Amino acid sequence: MIEIQKEKNSQKLVSPPPKTPDFIEAPLIVEEEKIDDNKNVNQLAGTPPEQQPPPTKKKVEEEEPVYFVAVEEMPEPIGGIGEIQKKIIYPEIAKRAGLEGKVLVNAFVDESGNVIKVEVIKGIGLGCDEAAVNAVLQTKFKPGKQRGKSVKVKITIPITFKL
Description:
Helix content is 22%, strand content 22%. With 163 residues, it is α+β, with helices and mostly antiparallel strands. The chain has a domain at 76-161: TolA/TonB C-terminal domain, CATH 3.30.2420.10.
């Protein structure tokens, strides 16, 4: 009986490999072009159709004004930097904490010397940044000039907080 089992194990049935599937090409989809059968008689006769002006594009975003960074005459606070320092109201919480330091702000000065916008570049916190911004906004500047003409200028101003 052992011999019969060995013969059965040695005979292995080999099945043929599976059949490879046939590839079917997908149909090519072509968009149909619509033809307008109701053309104007004038167009068929060869006269050009009425020209419509192209639609105007409305700008959603307003362009930010261009500010000079370096000009022949830079804007200066009327009364000097000391005038800005006088307008600073030292925050009470900063006084109690003994906070001292410098706040750097960018001031955007227009052609007439008014400060339009102020951005804090480097702050020290505890209300000092806001106090510096308010002091610069309250200050009138001598406008910056390029080729003898007043221009918009962006300047960096250091504001010192010292107890």
